[in-house]
Specification:
The chain is mostly beta strands and 102 residues long. 10% of the residues lie in helices and 30% in strands. The mean pLDDT is 83.
């Protein structure tokens, strides 16, 4: 996938359209300190005692479960504003095997 190095985009900090420098960044892994991960860890722990673990005790429905690894990762573009030099991230990435800046 070919991506231009400069792109005119809306900057949420300046609240105006300006030239942005595009850079690719590595995707961050999910943090183990988020609220949801703490809840799941608590549910998994043996200190809970006897009883049902709610939706965590049910197995995934095998008929709808996808198998295999995805062939591509989603891109993570960072856009740096030309006027205020602040950086923001795109909302949703695109799947591409290789990203090339031109």
């Amino acid at each position: 996938m070919k991506v231009p190095k400069l792109k005119k985009r809306y900057c949420p900090y300046c609240k105006s359209h300006s030239e942005h420098k595009v850079a690719a960044a590595k995707k961050k892994n999910a943090s183990s300190l988020t609220y949801g991960s703490k809840v799941r860890a608590r549910k998994r722990g043996s200190a809970r005692g006897i009883g049902s673990m709610g939706r965590y005790s049910k197995k995934a429905i095998s008929a709808f479960k996808m198998t295999g690894k995805k062939q591509t990762k989603k891109t993570d573009f960072r856009y740096e504003c030309g006027t205020c030099k602040k950086m923001h991230v795109q909302k949703q990435g695109l799947r591409a095997r290789r990203v090339e800046f031109q």
